[in-house]
């Protein structure tokens, strides 16, 4: 088993991880980013509401960010992490290739895993009509018919949000499970509710053209928002004793993006909503600056 030491190791190659890498490596510490930009939820997204960008593909943005980080000296490893561990003040990252990496400072920026419908063709239509975030992609569907799947607060509030952009909104769910106030708002709205139903098929080859329900109802829609909640990608951090927030889904951090463990920072979607590139980049910036400062202090103690 080979072993290597880095001043900073960043888990995740999305907006948060790449921004953290860029800030950290420019402060003269060795940085390794573990992850693939293609696995980031932003990779297939259309970037429409990020400061200073007119709009464009997430893949182009992430590739540019990676190129900048690499040019500044950050290393990249596109491989899965098998486990995280701690031996006194050293954090150990074990890779699928049996490689063992060590560091005094970690940034957790692995994002979250979206709950999907698991239907054929769903993955291929992400960014082409299928979305997992109304707040992110809702404005792209102005005056177009859309469907939202889910019966919880995320889905219902998403349906309310879409009312600002379009008039034909379908909410599809097995059962509504929201408070009285949100339920009344839904009742008072123009949202068409299909309770007791589920989506069995997504129509469309290159883009979404409609959905088929389990009662054979076919809805003509251009956008399908799957709002079933999100599962925090915190399993790897669990072994380290990282504390989660009150929802037990996301990592708890302070304003410096510090977790409860010395030298461990977190940024981006793994810290909770809103699911916005702007939030991830901002948190990545703070985490990168802070983790570099921590790593430099560690280095000075050993000189």
Oligomer: single chain
Portion in strands: 25-35%
Strand count, sense and barrel status of the largest sheet are: 5 strands, parallel
Q: At CATH's second level, what is the architecture of the largest domain?
A: 3-Layer(bba) Sandwich
The backbone outline, from C-alpha atoms, is: elongated
CATH class category of the largest domain:
Alpha Beta
Q: What is the number of independent domains?
A: 2
Kindly state the percentage of residues in helix: 25-40%
Count of strand segments: 21
**CATH fold type of the largest domain:** FAD/NAD(P)-binding domain
Query: So, the CATH homologous superfamily of the largest domain?
Result: FAD/NAD(P)-binding domain
Q: Which strand order spans the largest sheet, edge to edge or round the barrel?
A: 6-3-2-10-21
* Stretches with pLDDT under 50, minimum 5 residues: none
Mean pLDDT: 90
Distance between the termini: 27 Å
Structural class: alpha/beta
Instruction: Give the helix tally.
Output: 7
């Amino acid at each position: 088993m080979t072993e290597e030491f880095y001043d900073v190791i960043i888990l995740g190659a999305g907006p948060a991880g790449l921004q953290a890498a860029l800030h950290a490596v420019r402060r003269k510490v060795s940085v390794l980013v573990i992850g693939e930009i293609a696995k980031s939820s932003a990779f297939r997204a259309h970037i429409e509401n990020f400061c200073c960008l007119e709009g464009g593909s997430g893949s182009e943005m992430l590739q540019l960010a990676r190129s900048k980080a690499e040019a500044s000296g950050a290393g990249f490893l596109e491989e899965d992490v098998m486990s995280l561990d701690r031996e006194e003040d050293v954090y150990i990252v074990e890779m699928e290739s049996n490689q063992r990496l060590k560091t005094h400072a970690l940034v957790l920026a692995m994002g979250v895993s979206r709950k999907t419908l698991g239907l054929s063709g769903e993955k291929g239509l992400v960014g082409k009509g299928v979305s997992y975030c109304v707040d992110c992609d809702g404005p792209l569907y102005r005056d177009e018919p859309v469907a939202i799947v889910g019966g919880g607060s995320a889905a219902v509030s998403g349906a309310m949000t879409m009312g600002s952009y379009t008039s034909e909104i379908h909410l599809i769910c097995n059962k509504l499970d929201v408070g009285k106030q949100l339920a009344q708002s839904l009742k008072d709205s123009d949202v068409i509710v299909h309770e007791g139903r589920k989506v069995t098929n997504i129509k469309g080859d290159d883009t979404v053209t409609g959905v088929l329900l389990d009662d054979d109802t076919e809805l003509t829609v251009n956008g399908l928002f799957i709002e079933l909640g999100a599962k925090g990608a915190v399993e790897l951090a669990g072994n380290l004793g990282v504390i989660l927030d009150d929802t037990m889904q996301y990592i708890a951090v302070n304003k410096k993006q510090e977790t409860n463990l010395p030298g461990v920072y977190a940024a981006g979607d793994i810290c909770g909503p809103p699911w916005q590139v702007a939030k991830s980049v901002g948190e990545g910036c703070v985490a990168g600056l802070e983790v570099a400062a921590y790593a430099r202090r560690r280095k000075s103690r050993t000189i």
